[in-house]
Predict the structure.
Amino acid sequence: MIGERVRLAREACMFTQAELAGSIGSPAGFVFDIESGRVLRPSDETIQRIASATSYPVRFFHMGALPEIPDGHYRRLKRGTSKSAKQLRAQVRQVVELIEQAEATVSLPVIRIQPLREQAEPLNIERIAIDVRKVLGFDDREPIPNVIRALERAGVVVVRLPGAVIDHDGFSAWPSFGMGGRPLVALSGDRSGDRDRLTVAHELGHLILHSLRPSTPPDQAEKEAFRFASAFLLPYRAAREAMRAPITLRVLVSVKATYGTSIAMGAKRAADLGLVTRDQFVSFQKQISARRWRTHEPVDVPREMPVLIGKIVTSLAGKGGSVFEQADRVALPVFAFRSLMAS
């Protein structure tokens, strides 16, 4: 049990086993021996040193088995490394532990979304996205003012992870589906509001389309999740009304201001729905690059912040004592505690 928690703390901090061993003054293979179970009961001094190196409270390493979570889905650049993916997943796994602790004591929203069992074609994905919007209280024309709050009201926990995970925007998983598990979406880094909205909608797509279809090829799963996100944020009917010919960059800027979607996503949406030709789409891509909008588009979309995770952490940590004492009660590093509370 201790070895499993040492691995989580190490991966959450992006240490290799050799790096962590060096930081606590131990031989290179010592951390491997702990994580593999060869050393079942490390000394109190060893745990204290590991706690100091990783910033995790000592009590974290003595809390027993960690919750199991599925592999989940990542929204990341292709150059994203497995080391970064492990960091993100380790941080999420501890959040799942907090959620499981809170289920018995905190009044959390009823889960109102359901994953699909069957494979979905592009046209079906359009319909599925509209159905999910209806469950969340939106028709097929109106903008969703706050995507994160919409998901939270439907029982999905959304978190902003502490710090940026290199080349990774988000992660989603549905631990213990059908046995009381709660779906979770995690955001990483300091992204623009429109990019965050797309990431959250993208991960919602994975929760709906792939929680019960984990064997879907990764490239196909990403295409399906993007199509869902596009249809969720900008449904077919709304897109047809907002993007009337002739469609120009000015039109796409207006769509961004209304629906909180990036200009680049608006161009792709227009192409997917046949509202512009392939040549027009390529022209939009060139114009966006020429204006250097790849890194910063016009029209700032407000950044959305989670609320539900703060309620969970506050309930578990209590309000008395210093921030260090509160973080210790929930077995979180202070930096992670502050990040979740800031939500």
In short: The mean pLDDT is 93. The radius of gyration is 22 Å. Residues 68-233+302-343 form one domain. The chain has two domains: 1-66, 68-233+302-343.
